[in-house]
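Aim 2, interim progress. The first record below pairs a target sequence with its structure tokens.
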Amino acid sequence: MTALDDIYADYELLDADDRYRLLIDLGRTLEPMPDALKTDATLVRGCSAAVWVYPMPREDGRLHFLADSNAAITKGIIALVLTTVQDRTAEEILATDIEGALAPFDLKNQLSSNRTQGIPNMIALIRQTAERLRG
């Protein structure tokens, strides 16, 4: 089972309020992102809350992402998105069906449209980064 499968196994058993709490708790697991990296260049456009994503290419060719948000639930959403791509190569990221991996969570029906409108932009930024850094 992948980490995403583990998260979903818990998520599907919860009611709406507890699902919010699970996402918020997931956001708390993100490693801290230094304020110096929270710039206009790392800001995800089109999100109702501020979301920053910063790629850190590793020596082994994998990409590690730092991310943060000024809203707890949005921070949980970006943590969920990153679970699908964290520490993978650019090629693996580009081959990953991120939307498909997240589909079982049915976020559009679980959260307000304000909360979910930025998800495609988060995914697009990750894919653009992988494309740019593909070796």
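The second target in this work package is listed in the same format:
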Amino acid sequence: MTTMETFNLLQPYRIAEETFVIPWALEAPPVGHFPMNSMVIRGAEPVLVDTGAPAVRAQWLEAAWSVVDPLDVRWIFLTHDDRDHAGNLLSVLAECPNATLLTTWFSIGRMAEEWETPINRCRFMIDGDTVDVGDRTLVAKRPPLYDNPTTRALFDPKTDVLWAVDTFATNVPTPIPEIADLSADEFRDGQFFGGRLVSPWVALLDGQKFRAVVDDFQRLDAEVIAGCHTPVLRGPQKAEAFDLLRRLPGIPAWPEFTQADLDQWMAVAEGSVPPEQPRPSAT
């Protein structure tokens, strides 16, 4: 099991049999950091789950290929087309010529503003669909929270690992591998903050109807829950996370940071902020 002492960003770590998270995190002052993870299932027909952010393209590709040979990859499951999930898709498709992209019609259309996805390499996989990847059958599921209409989670019944995508998003004081590394207050406050941040519409929902959706998601009975914007959940943290999720419709919307906040931050930082520099190329 990965520990705090052995955890490093962009170094894959095992969360279940033949299943690895590729961790990254984005510094997000003043609330700490946000995880930006993806996953690899190294089974009979290896699967990439999301393709990482373009800001760290070279490092992400190196990390992925340290787990699996790109020529062996047979499936790329794209949870949705946001840049932190699809940012390296074209590079991955180029380096994985034997892979089929599991996506949706709407995702392809949304990505067309930037690139043309090779439709001959796609397979549509919507809520409830399954795909046989040789030694296991994966299940697509629409999660309770999402920030993109094309979003689908992925459940692996063989290992009982659930990729929850943006559900259970949380800020963390420093990048960590497991939710259990947070204090009880950090865990609760992070779930309420992250959930309202990625899905501000949750405050508009009928609580009873939303709870039914959460119940359905929980019935997958995952042993391990991973996601793009959360450390891994296990044990009692899983049930607590679902309970906190059910409470979100009854919590007022998160008050966004305003220009007054930015002015205050800049006043504090005046004289200590270096000139803006372009981000180094990650090609």
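The mean pLDDT is 94. This observation will shape the mutagenesis plan for the next reporting period.
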